[in-house]
Amino acid sequence: MNPVLNLVNVTLEYPDGDSTLKALDAVDLRVDAGEFFSLVGPSGSGKSSLLAVAATLVRPSSGLVLIDGMDATGLKDTELTSLRREKVGIIFQQPNLLPSLTAVEQLILGDHLRGKPAVRARKRATELLDVVGLGTSLNKRPHQLSGGQRQRVNIARALMGQPRVLLVDEPTAALDHERSESIVRLLRQVTDEFATATVMVTHDTEFLPLTDSVATMRDGRLGLAVPASPTSPHRHPRLASSAREPWRRGPTQMSF
Ligand SMILES: Nc1ncnc2c1ncn2[C@@H]1O[C@H](COP(=O)(O)OP(=O)(O)OP(=O)(O)O)[C@@H](O)[C@H]1O
């Protein structure tokens, strides 16, 4: 199977005084349709940089970024914007909803900016809000919703463009334990239902078993992806059997 998101030998350098800092250092990443991939690592290790490059918001210094088979690194800025709108959904830690718009309008606005017809947008927005458990809150404004509900609107909004890739940055950082778990469960559900290649940056290692695979970033380098739990090996035909069962090789392999 061809990966939906494929980063090949990606390096991202920033000027750092007289030298350069490698925010990403020869990163390879493959995420398939319907795979929920989590990314962990210490602060400053390059997780946000990886998401930004995968989202085509930042061009890598070298390497390839392939989305649904298309090489984003060879595209002009306008083409890149189209690719991002068509193929990529981004969910940031803070929902950044517009205070004056209802939940359904938050979603329609995104589609309007994509130039899609309004009638279909309302139908899809209503369906998606139902999927994320907000079918009875379509006309509520952000201040009438809880933090968890606002994050659900954020997730539904990211799905409006029918993305193939879903990039999620610390979705539970502002939520309590119960709401955090329900948000990660929702991301699991939408990854399955819409077959997105989902990458989630998280500090919440507790919820990793809800995902399929996990890799650790350190100093811009991405470690080997391993199954996130003994019960999530089913999506790893490409991994060798020893990699599929890392818990058999002792705890050091699973140190997040
Ligand atoms: N725009 C930038 N200009 C210069 N250096 C940057 C820039 N963005 C990130 N960096 C540096 O790149 C490295 C990786 O940063 P990045 O934000 O990707 O890490 P992170 O793992 O997401 O950290 P955190 O968990 O704290 O968000 C850090 O050393 C950071 O200081």
Which SSEs are present, and which pair or pack?
Elements: E1 5-16, E2 19-31, E3 36-40, H1 47-54, E4 62-67, E5 70-71, H2 77-87, E6 88-91, H3 103-113, H4 118-131, H5 147-159, E7 165-169, H6 177-194, E8 197-201, E9 213-218, E10 221-222, E11 226-227, H7 241-244
Parallel strand pairs: 3-8, 3-9, 6-7, 7-8
Antiparallel strand pairs: 1-2, 1-4, 4-5, 9-10, 9-11
Helix pairs in contact: 3-4, 3-5, 4-5, 5-6
The structure holds adenosine-5'-triphosphate (ATP).
Description:
The chain is 31% helix and 24% strand. It starts with a strand and ends in a 12-residue tail after the last helix. The strands form 2 sheets. Strands 3, 6, 7, 8, 9, 10 and 11 form a 7-stranded mixed sheet that branches. It has helices spanning 47-54, 77-87, 103-113, 118-131, 147-159, 177-194, 241-244; strands spanning 5-16, 19-31, 36-40, 62-67, 70-71, 88-91, 165-169, 197-201, 213-218, 221-222, 226-227. The chain has a single domain, classed as P-loop containing nucleotide triphosphate hydrolases (Rossmann fold, 3-Layer(aba) Sandwich). The protein has 256 residues and is of the alpha/beta class. The site of adenosine-5'-triphosphate has 11 residues, from β2 and α1.
Helix/strand class: alpha/beta
The first-to-last residue Cα distance is: 28 Å
Report the portion of residues in β strands. 15-25%
Average pLDDT rating: 88
Provide the CATH topology.
Rossmann fold
* Radius of gyration from the alpha-carbon trace, in angstroms: 18 Å
CATH H-level homologous superfamily name: P-loop containing nucleotide triphosphate hydrolases
Number of domains: 1
The proportion of residues forming helix, as a percent range, comes to 25-40%
- Strand/helix succession: EEEHEEHEHHHEHEEEEH
Shape field: globular
pLDDT < 50 runs, ≥5 residues: 236-256
* Biggest β-sheet strands, sense, barrel: 7 strands, mixed
- Ligands, ions, cofactors: adenosine-5'-triphosphate
Q: How many β-strand stretches? A: 11
DSSP summary: helix tally: 7
> For the record, what CATH class applies?
Alpha Beta
Give the name of the CATH architecture: 3-Layer(aba) Sandwich
GO molecular function: ATP binding
Protein name: ABC transporter ATP-binding protein
Region (Disordered): 225-256
InterPro entries: AAA+_ATPase, ABC_transporter-like_ATP-bd, ABC_transporter-like_CS, ABC_transpr_LolD-like, MacB-like_ATP-bd, P-loop_NTPase
